[in-house]
Amino acid sequence: MERYHDGKDLDTSSYPLVAVCIDKDKNSQNALKWAIDTLVQKGQIIVLVHVNTKGTSGKSLRYIYSLHIYL
Questions:
Q1: Quick one: pLDDT band at residue 37, thresholds 50, 70, 90?
Q2: Is 1 strand, coil or helix?
Q3: Closest CA to 40 of 67, 70, 10, 11
Q4: I want to staple 55 with a disulfide (CB 3.0 to 4.6 A). Which of 12, 21, 24, 61 is the partner?
Q5: What is the C-alpha to C-alpha distance for residues 21 and 54, in angstroms, rounded to an integer?
Q6: Judging by beta carbons within 10 Å of its beta carbon (0-12, 13-18, 19+), is residue 40 exposed, middle or buried?
Q7: Is 34 helix (H, G, I), strand (E, B) or coil?
Q8: What is the pTM of this model?
Q9: Predicted local confidence at residue 40, as pLDDT
Q10: Parallel, antiparallel, or unpaired: how do β-strands 18-21 and 45-54 relate?
């Protein structure tokens, strides 16, 4: 079963967008679990968004990474 999807071929007009911001903190896992348990319906895509504002060297670095998960 495919778990990751680019979302291009799916009709998502009947579902609102659900996006969860994540990082390495334990609260991200809790937020994702809560969103899946209370907001997301079967067949819906949930978008995970990770924003990093600092690189490992401490210099300012900004990037956004997102992943669509098809449930």
A1: very high
A2: coil
A3: 70
A4: 61
A5: 16
A6: middle
A7: helix
A8: 0.58
A9: 87
A10: parallel
